[in-house]
Write a structure and sequence with these properties.
The chain is mainly α. It contains 2 helices and no strands. The longest helix has 127 residues.
């Protein structure tokens, strides 16, 4: 039993007549009005909670979609990282091959230069030898006559 019911019982017991009835009606209406107010508030909060629940469900759905997109993008990124790594290894292999071929080319150029010098020296020696042969043949030819 709450205090409102106690007051109503006391007033009823005293039998104050019209004043008691008015007071009882006032207290009863006040209680009814509070119930209606609470009921209205409950409906408003219930509607708000439903709207929030709907929104939360919608956001959760969007989050799931975005997580799938992120997973797909991460997979693509990993794949592209693998491709980049493969291409970088190929680039290094090509660079190493180019460096090796450049070194061989420079060695070949040096060999060709040395061979060119040797050819030039041999031609000079050959020319000198021909001149000596010619001189010897002339001396031998003059000596026979």
């Amino acid at each position: 039993m709450n205090w409102t019911q106690i007051v109503i019982a006391i007033i009823g017991a005293l039998g104050v007549g019209g004043i008691g009835a008015a007071l009882v009606n006032w207290l009863a209406n006040k209680k009814s009005k509070q119930v209606n107010d609470f009921s209205s508030l409950a409906k408003v909060y219930e509607e708000r909670l439903k709207a929030l629940a709907d929104r939360a469900a919608s956001v959760e759905c969007r989050v799931e979609k975005l997580e799938k997109i992120i997973k797909t993008l991460n997979t693509e990124l990993d794949s592209k990282d693998d491709i980049i790594e493969i291409l970088q290894r190929a680039e290094k292999a090509h660079k190493d091959e180019i460096d090796k071929l450049n070194k061989e080319r420079l060695e070949q150029i040096e060999t060709n230069r040395k061979q060119g010098e040797r050819i030039h020296k041999l031609r000079l020696e050959n020319t000198k030898l021909k001149e000596r042969i010619t001189l010897l043949e002339e001396k031998l030819g003059n000596a026979k006559s």
